[in-house]
Design a protein that fits this description.
386 residues; alpha+beta; 11 helices
Length: 386
């Protein structure tokens, strides 16, 4: 019910109730008065009733001769006033109570929020306006709960980020220091050994660079500040360029590379730099998560129903079924018992998925289980719908 309707109904009741009660009281009083006093002594006819002077004189004479009748009139007046006062008070109090209850509950809920207590229930009201207010207040409470949970999650992620980055930076930095000390101490006493030391130092420096780059990208994603400069291009060119940059790494890892790339151009609208990051992350994982018996990395690129696909299949350590749905979570790492020697900050796949989805695409993994390899699939809409 609307508040306006409620006030109007109470206003009507406050007017009609006293009139009805006073009408009943008047009839009863008139019967008692007529039976108690000889009103016929007033000798008033119908014509006299129309003359206020005659009526006033007759009534005055009657009350002078019967002074106790005044008491009855006073009692009658007091009853009428009391009826008006009581009905008005009762109806007003009931209206105030019906309005006061939800307001007091909201006030109590405000105090709960001030104390940091958000787990409570906001009751509604019979009045539409107050019920809307209660619903809005409860929506605010739920949003506050989400904000608190989001803040706690961000704090947890920040702690995880600091912990993971610190751990992952310590290993290459320690390695670089060790190789530099070896050069300074003359351990690298042949050109071949010196070249190997320098190559290792460069590799560790590139690892640090990737960590910092991932961290910068993650910060940009969290702040919604990462800019995309998309343009039309052939997805095959980007893929082949990334593959060429990894050929030596595949050879060093003892992996055979198989490719099945579309013969015709695969035109897409992408940010080449950002999509390169997605591909390098997938290839990095294929290298990092290989096992002693790993021999193959197979790459395919094809178009099907206006969608471009890239698949990267390896025969590495695989992913357990219970981990498959979590590998894209921020800071998630594989089971330490299987990947204890693998450096990673748990940012790569999460960033790769966000970048892919920003291109209106998808990124997902498939694995048959432990030591059964993993297949990463990227899908992107083609630019020309072909």
């Amino acid at each position: 019910m609307k508040l306006r309707q409620k006030f109007e109904s109470y206003n009507f009741i406050m007017l009609t109730a006293p009139i009805a009660i006073i009408g009943v009281v008047s009839v009863l009083f008139l019967i008692i008065f007529v039976m108690k006093f000889p009103v016929e002594e007033m000798h008033i006819n119908r014509t006299a009733l129309l003359n206020p002077v005659i009526l006033t004189q007759a009534v005055g004479a009657f009350f002078i001769s019967h002074p106790t009748a005044v008491t009855y009139l006073i009692v009658y007046g007091a009853i009428c006033v009391s009826v008006c006062a009581v009905t008005s008070t009762i109806l007003t109090r009931r209206l105030v109570q019906s309005l006061e209850k939800p307001i007091l509950e909201l006030r109590e809920n405000v105090d709960n929020i001030r104390k940091g207590e958000l787990r409570f229930e906001v009751m509604g009201s019979d009045y539409d306006e107050l019920d809307d207010l209660c619903e809005g207040f409860d929506a605010m409470r739920r949003e506050l709960i989400r904000s608190v949970e989001r803040e706690e999650r961000l704090k947890h992620e920040q702690r995880m980020l600091i912990s993971n980055i610190s751990h992952d930076l310590k290993t290459p930095v320690t390695s670089i220091k060790g190789y530099i000390d070896g050069i300074n101490d003359g351990i690298a006493d042949t050109p071949e050994k010196l070249s190997r030391y320098l190559a290792t130092i460069k590799s560790k420096a590139e690892t640090i660079d990737r960590l910092v780059s991932n961290l910068s990208t993650f910060a940009g994603m969290e702040d919604a500040e990462l800019k995309f400069n998309t343009e039309r291009g052939d997805l095959r060119d980007l893929l082949l360029d990334v593959i060429d940059s990894y050929r030596i790494d595949f050879e060093r890892g003892g992996l055979e590379l198989e490719t099945d790339i579309a013969d015709t151009p695969v035109t897409v609208c992408i940010d080449g730099e950002k999509m390169r990051r997605v591909l390098t992350n997938i290839f990095d994982n294929a290298l990092k998560y290989r096992r002693s018996g790993s021999k193959l990395i197979a790459v395919k690129c094809f178009v099907e129903e206006n969608t471009a696909y890239i698949t990267v299949r390896d025969d590495g350590i695989g992913i357990a079924p219970n981990e498959l749905s979590r590998v894209f979570d921020t800071f998630y790492r594989a089971d330490d018992s299987r990947a204890a020697q693998i450096n990673g900050n748990g940012l790569g796949l999460g960033i790769a998925r966000q970048i892919t989805e920003a291109h209106n695409g998808r990124l997902w993994l498939r694995s048959d289980g432990i030591n059964k390899g993993t297949t990463a699939t990227i899908s992107l809409p083609t630019a020309d719908g072909k």
